Amino acid sequence: MKTLLLSLVSLTVLTLCAQEKFIRPVIEMYPVKNFSSASGLKNPAWAKAKEYPFMINAGIPQDFGVLPPEECKVQVMYDKDNFYIRTVMSDSEVLSEAVDQNSPIPNCSDYFCIILRPKSETGFFYILGTPNAITKAVYVTGPGSMRLASANLPLETKVPVYTSINGKLNDGKRDKSWSALTVIPIKKLVSEVKKYGININESTGWTLMTGRRNYSRFLEIADISGYPQPVRGFFNMRHHALLLKK
């Protein structure tokens, strides 16, 4: 009888965890006017934008709500042409072996990623950036096909990334943090993907995942974290946040 009760309790806990995972979180976007990329990371408007903390990649129920050993926060703002995403990342060793746009970012650098998906589509904009501001941006036709070269549609529109390092890149000494501002020219991007038959507009409903991969010799293991909390990786779309304009 005791074993049966314990089994029922365990099943209830797992069921509650499973239900909790399917509650779609929300990210509020703060409106901004006359935004200058030159002062982007230090723009005073960021003081009004809500901060969201990264959490570790979840594989088991005990992982839910756990912050990474080196914390990170993300904020989102917007105007009529762009989305602005600021990511501030604690980092004991800021690293990048990426030297140009042909570098395989996920395998050679600390990086952040942005997965911005129109709610009406299977595909998404996938953006990567490194501490030394090397950037990749593509439109992927769907998470189940993203490893196929044909599913990664190239973009001519540039997605600027501006970074700042509190420390020194690749010097082998302890660092403190690095920050990135990603300027997503959403109006231009949605116009460009029409050539692929993807008919969306900048007022489309959007979901968002922001994440990072953090390498450091001071960590026991390379860190994967994000907001909303990634569940078995960044591409589990049902756990991505709904973007809401304030």
Summarize the amount of helix as a percent range: 10-25%
Write down the overall mean pLDDT.
Answer: 89
Q: Tell me, what's the shape? A: globular
Derived structural class: mainly beta
Query: What is the CA-based Rg, rounded?
Result: 19 Å
- Unreliable stretches, pLDDT < 50, 5 or more residues? 1-21
Q: Please give the alpha-carbon distance between the first and last residues.
A: 53 Å
Q: Could you tell me the strand content as a percent range?
A: 25-35%
Count of discrete alpha- or pi-helical segments spanning 4 or more residues: 3
Tell me the total number of β-strands: 14
What characteristics describe this protein?
single chain, 246 residues, mainly beta, 14-stranded mixed sheet, 3 helices, 14 strands, 33% strand, globular, disordered N terminus
Question: Would you mind describing this structure in some detail?
Answer:
Helices cover 13% and strands 33% of the residues. It has helices at residues 2-21, 105-108, 186-192; strands at 26-31, 52-53, 55-56, 72-78, 83-90, 111-118, 124-129, 135-140, 152-154, 161-166, 177-184, 206-214, 223-227, 241-245. Strands 1, 2, 3, 4, 5, 6, 7, 8, 9, 10, 11, 12, 13 and 14 form a 14-stranded mixed β-sheet that branches. The protein is globular. The model is unreliable at 1-21 (pLDDT under 50).
